Automatic annotation (TrEMBL):
GO molecular function: calcium ion binding
Domain of life (superkingdom): Bacteria
Keyword Iron-sulfur part of the UniProt annotation: no
Domain BON: 100-168
Keyword line: Signal
Official protein name in the record: BON domain-containing protein
InterPro entries: BON_dom, EF-hand-dom_pair, EF_Hand_1_Ca_BS, EF_hand_dom, Lipoprotein_DolP, Transpt-assoc_nodulatn_dom_bac
Signal peptide: 1-27
One of the Pfam families matching this protein, by short name: BON
The organism of origin for this protein: Methyloradius palustris
């Protein structure tokens, strides 16, 4: 019964945290949606209405490879639409990645809390791009291996980094 309560509590807390984070991400003003194109014009240092690779070099998103992908008409510059479309696509992909990582974290934590002998609040679970990081303390060395197995069993997990330690 205690594990069921912990599982429900953890699931609700993680869901609320994920919802709050996702709401905050969507609530952020996207300067590219500004009809005046403030960010685009700020980068357009020669005021010609297009961006060269050197003009967008300050934005990490626009590597040479990504600039080439964004330059749909292959003229060596980005117009406002090419810039906005590529940046929007990248932002949408990042939101999706964060949401997927949150789901993985929730599922891994749920698996650990359900497991007999684990106290889920002693184990921290973080996920980035499908890589799960486990940290915290367990009572027995066997639990370190078991936690890794549980994490690996969750769909979407690419790998597990286990930094769990046995309490002394």
């Amino acid at each position: 019964m205690k594990n069921q309560f912990n599982l429900k509590t953890v699931t609700v807390l993680v869901a609320l945290t994920t919802a709050a984070f996702t709401s905050a991400v969507f609530a952020q003003p996207d300067i590219n949606e500004n009809p005046n194109g403030v960010q685009f014009r700020k980068l357009d240092t020669d005021n010609d209405g297009t961006l060269t690779h050197s003009e967008v070099a300050s934005e990490k998103l626009f590597t040479k490879k990504n600039f080439a992908k964004a330059d749909l008409d292959k003229d060596g510059t980005l117009d406002q639409k090419e810039y906005d479309d590529f940046k929007s696509e990248a932002q949408n992909a990042e939101v999706k990645r964060v949401a997927n990582d949150s789901v993985i974290t929730t599922k891994v934590k749920s698996q650990i809390v359900k497991e007999e002998g684990f106290s889920g609040f002693q184990i921290s679970v973080e996920t980035h791009k499908g890589v799960v990081q486990l940290s915290g303390f367990v009572d027995k060395a066997e639990q370190i291996t078991k936690a890794t197995e549980l994490a690996k069993s969750v769909e979407g997990v690419k790998s597990v980094k286990n930094s769990l330690l046995v309490k002394s």
